[in-house]
Amino acid sequence: MPCSCLNALVNPRRRQRLTAGGTIDSGPPLYDGEVNETLPPCPECSSELTYEMGALLVCPLCGHEWAAEAASAGEPAQDAAITDAHGSVLADGDSVTIIKDLKLKGSSTVIKVGTKVRGIRLRQGVGDHDIECRIEGVSMQLKSGVVKKA
């Protein structure tokens, strides 16, 4: 009689484990090629190919991982208003002022305190940099915690 590990190699859809008592326990079935219709799409790229990995949901296209509880709670992160460092609600097209010196990544330049930025665009649900703007002709992203509404 062949050993259980050989059986698992011959039939890859049948996963078997050896328990402490020496008996063979069949685990959950492996992926059967069918798409699960109950999982929500990816919030980053809207892909329908999401799958569960433990307590997380994972998108195979963009690699985004998120908690299954947040997706099933029905509270999208986009409903939350974006506020500045002092709690004022920001909107697209607002003007803001930088409240902290910001060193640009990959450069020796610094954006000074008091720099005024006009015509901001809000990006909701995309990491912690939730403001897009142009400063001195360079397009960049800022955190809302380093600006105040002008």
Give a verbal description of the structure.
With 150 residues, the protein is mostly beta strands. The protein has three domains: 1-32, no CATH class; 35-75, N-terminal domain of TfIIb, CATH 2.20.25.10; 96-149, SH3 Domains (SH3 type barrels). Helices cover 8% and strands 26% of the residues. The strands form five sheets. It has a three-stranded antiparallel beta sheet with strand order 3-4-5. The chain starts with a helix and ends with a strand.
Oligomeric description of these chains? single chain
Q: Which topology of the largest domain does CATH recognise?
A: SH3 type barrels
Helix percentage: under 10%
Task: Report Rg.
Answer: 25 Å
How many strand units?
13
CATH architecture verdict of the largest domain: Roll
Strand content: 25-35%
Strand order across the largest sheet: 3-4-5
- CATH class label of the largest domain: Mainly Beta
Q: Please give the count of helices.
A: 2
For the largest beta-sheet, the strand count, sense and barrel status come to: 3 strands, antiparallel
- Reading the helices and strands in chain order gives HEEEEEHEEEEEEEE
Low confidence ranges: 6-10
Instruction: Give the rounded overall mean pLDDT.
Output: 78
